Structure formats: C-alpha cells, structure tokens
Amino acid sequence: MFEYFKYIFITVLSTFFIHIGIVVYDAIHHPVAVGQFVHPDIGLDIETLVKRNGYPFEKHHVTTEDGYILELHRIRHGLNKKNLTNRPPILIVHGILESSMAWLSAGVDKALPYYLAEQGYDVWLSNCRGNAYSRKHIKLNPDVDKKEFFDYSWHEIGVYDHPATIDYVIKKTGKSKIFYAGHSQGSVSFMVMMSERPEYNKKIKAMLALAPVVFVDHVKSPTFYIPALFQNAFEWIVEYFGLYELLPKSEIITQIANKLCNDESRLQKLCSTLLNINGGFNGDKFNSTLWPVVFSHIPAGSATKQYMHYTRNIFNDFRKFDYGEAKNLLVYGNKIPPLYDLSKVAAPVGIFYGNNDWLTPEKDVQKLIRSLPNVVMVHKVADENFAHFDFLVSLHAVDILYDKLVNLMQQYK
Fold first, then answer.
1. Of 311, 115, 307, 295, whose CA–CA distance to 230 is shortest?
2. 10 lies in a domain?
3. Helices (runs of H) and strands (runs of E) counted in the chain
4. CATH of the domain at 213
5. I need a labelling partner for 57 at 20 to 30 A (CA). Which of 8, 172, 202, 230 fits?
6. How far apart are CA 84 and CA 120, in angstroms?
7. What's the pLDDT tens digit per position in 325-365?
C-alpha cells in the first residue's frame, strides 16, 4: 500500500514541476501571448508609475561615506495638495530583497506612500545599497567587482546608508528632524544606526518599526531557519559559486510571474506561496490580480551577506556579523561578535507587528520592547492572520494599521 501511494505522490509531484517547467519555458521564449492580458503596472519604473497615478515625483542621489550611490524617491504631496508649505518629512525604508517599489505594489488606494502623502506628509522612499535602484558605487562595478561591491550587511546600511540619507533629507527640506518608518530589515538597520551612531537620535521625531526582525530566537520562517541549521554548507555554496549577490531584479522573473501569477493561471496560488512562505500566510487578504506586479519588482536584489547576518543571529541574539572565531579576534578583538547596544536608541519608537508573522513572533517582539528605552506605542494588528508582507500589500492595511501610524506621528508632528 505504501508503494502505491509513493508512486502516486511521485507522479503528482513530477506533473506539477513539468507544468511549471512548461510555463517557465513559454515565458522565456514567448513573453506575451497574443490576446493575453498584461497588467499595465508590470515592469514599470517607479517614476512612470507614480506620475501615471497623478502624484508628483522626484529622484535624488546620495553618496555614502564608503562610496555607494543611493537613489531616493520623493512624493512631495498628495492629490489634494493639502498644506504644501509645511509638510513633515518621513523616510520610508524597505526590507531585504526589496526596493522603494515594494511600497507601491498594493495599488494607488492601498499603498502607504500615497496614503501618507494624502495625510499631509512629505514622503521620501529609500533604496538601500545593492538593490535595483542603488546598484552603483564611485569605484566598484557590481558586475565586475561583485565580491567587493556586495561585501556588506545591514550593519553597513545602518552605519552608512541611513545617516547619509537622513542628512540629505534634512538639508533638502530645511527641517531639523524627520519621521522614519522601516519594514523588516528597515527597522533592524535603524537599530544598528542608533547603536553605532547615537547622535542621529536627535534627528528623528519618531520611528515606526513595522514587523521589526531584530531578535530571531523564535523565527518560524523555513527560508531563515533551514540555512541556519546548515550554516557551513550554505556558506560554502556561496563562496564556491560566487553567489555574493542575492536574487537581483530580472526581466525573466517578470515574464515568468506574468505567466504564473495572472488571474487566468491555475498556478496563481503558487505565487502567493512563494512570497508568503518566508513570512506567513494570510488567506485572500490581497488583490490577486496584482501578483504579477509584485513579482515584477520583488525580488530587487541585495547582498547575500545581509541574509547570512540574519541566519547567524538565530539562536545568537542581536549581534554584529559573525566571521568565525579567528577573524572575529582580528575585527572585534573577541571570539564572539559584540552585541548592538539597544539602550542607545533614545528616539521615540512605535512597534507594529502581526499575529501570524513568521519572521517576528510575539516573543521576539516582546524581547525587543524590553530592550528599548523609549517605546511609545505597541500595536498588534487586529487581524489574527496578519503576516509579514501584509504590511506592504494587505487590502485592509489602511484601516487596521496605517491610520495607527498617522495617529502616533500626530503626537510628534
């Protein structure tokens, strides 16, 4: 009987992968079939998308102390053009493998940047080093000098990228302080910045931590947990094959997503699975028509070292990058990497988390709350299944989350 079911399982699994293979082959060799619906937002650059939705758009560039050239995107005001002269600036920072476009994937009436622009804020969207919009350096070529260019983690993003960006926004807006909102890694790198460069506390009105993946003692995500269990093998593969850049933006992925994820595809649910297997599932709380749009912008690339930093911190607290005992002695003067000092995060912090977020389980969130000296709000989203990527794409985020962010900012406006 066991053999019978084994062969059925193998047959079904083989058929599934053959079906996917056919779809992938077709997507590569025949990107758009005659008469096939293609969502108008697929593959658009952010400037085209924002302007087409009627919003003002500005592109800015910032160079960090260590030579990375970052691209910033600005939505100065909303369609209502309310309060054009005195709008508080807010810097919104994406997570790992994302770009500024990730914040706009939910559509014009659901996306956080548009919502904040309509609420009277001057919105700045960050692009951290190495993603699709910030793949530049004053000396290094990311395609030629790949190992050197991508030799960074979210430590360097916190130490170099955010300070340079904050200083630029303050200079351009003439304000002495700004708001900061970070999703996932965008919250982690903020904690790094304040630990390593605490003078930047005085430049932040309030920080909004959305699904902050700081402590990962209880992480449930298989894409984090499994590499942590097989750390040596994972790192050997990275070095042997030179995989220093992780999942860069690809036109092939865009074409495959258009085939797999459109409303007529029988494999559309697979698209939801591919994104949410990392951060938890929340049923049908997203407009499935937009899945091809999401995957035309995510992944947007990062350094593999960013991911490795996370996996090395599992079971190991919130520490700097672990190079191994020998190199740790050279870099840190100790066999064990030092902890980040969260007591230095003096800026007001609001923490927002979901009940079904596999990357930020409640025990880890509570540990973060206990570690920070100035937590001014803790909000658990009123949806039992709210997961990691719902902070970006949920149909209900405006009502059950974004208005809470604005309420907190109003207290410091």
1. 311
2. no
3. 18, 11
4. 3.40.50.1820
5. 202
6. 8
7. 999 999 999 999 999 999 999 999 999 999 999 999 999 99
Check: CB of residue 23 under 8 Å from CB of residue 253.
no
Does residue 299 have a cis peptide bond before it, meaning omega lies within 30 degrees of 0? yes
Q: Six-digit token pair at 214?
A: 């700081």
Told to judge if 184 belongs to the known catalytic residues of this protein, a careful annotator would answer yes
Determine contact, residues 66/159, Cβ cutoff 8 Å: no
Average pLDDT per run of 10 along the chain, which is 413 residues long?
38 41 48 57 91 97 98 95 86 97 91 96 98 98 97 98 98 98 98 98 98 94 82 88 93 83 84 86 78 89 96 92 96 97 98 96 97 98 94 92 97 90
Query: What is the C-alpha separation between 69 and 126, in angstroms, rounded?
Result: 12
Q: Are 172 and 165 in contact (CB under 8 A)?
A: no
Which pLDDT score is estimated for 283? Answer: 64
Q: What would the DSSP string read from start to end of 204-238?
A: EEEEEEES-----TT---HHHHHHHHTHHHHHHHH
Number of structural domains (the chain) is: 1
The answer for residues whose C-beta is within 8 angstroms of residue 257's C-beta and 6 or more apart is 42, 271, 291, 292, 294, 295, 296
Neighbours of 140 (CB within 10 A): 17
What are the tokens at 253?
């992925």
Out of 73, 297, 309, 388, which one is annotated catalytic? 388
Q: Among residues 184, 221, 371, 394, which one is catalytic? A: 184
Q: List the one residue out of 298, 311, 207, 209 whose CA is nearest residue 250.
A: 298
Calpha distance 374→356 (Å, rounded) = 25
Query: Which tens digits make up the pLDDT trace of 242-298?
Result: 999 999 998 888 888 888 888 888 888 888 888 888 899 876 677 788 888 888 888
Distance CA 186, CA 287 (A): 25
Assess if residue 38 is contained within a domain. Answer: no
Q: Is residue 67 part of a domain?
A: yes
> Could you tell me the residue range of the domain that residue 76 belongs to?
46-412
Per-residue pLDDT at 403: 95
Q: Give residue for tokens 């956080």.
A: 112
With the C-alpha atoms ordered 221, 303, 101, 273, is the resulting torsion angle positive or negative? negative
Q: Which residues are within 8 A (CB) of 287 and not within 5 positions of it... i.e. 6 or more apart?
A: 106, 107, 110, 395
* Position 2 in a domain: no
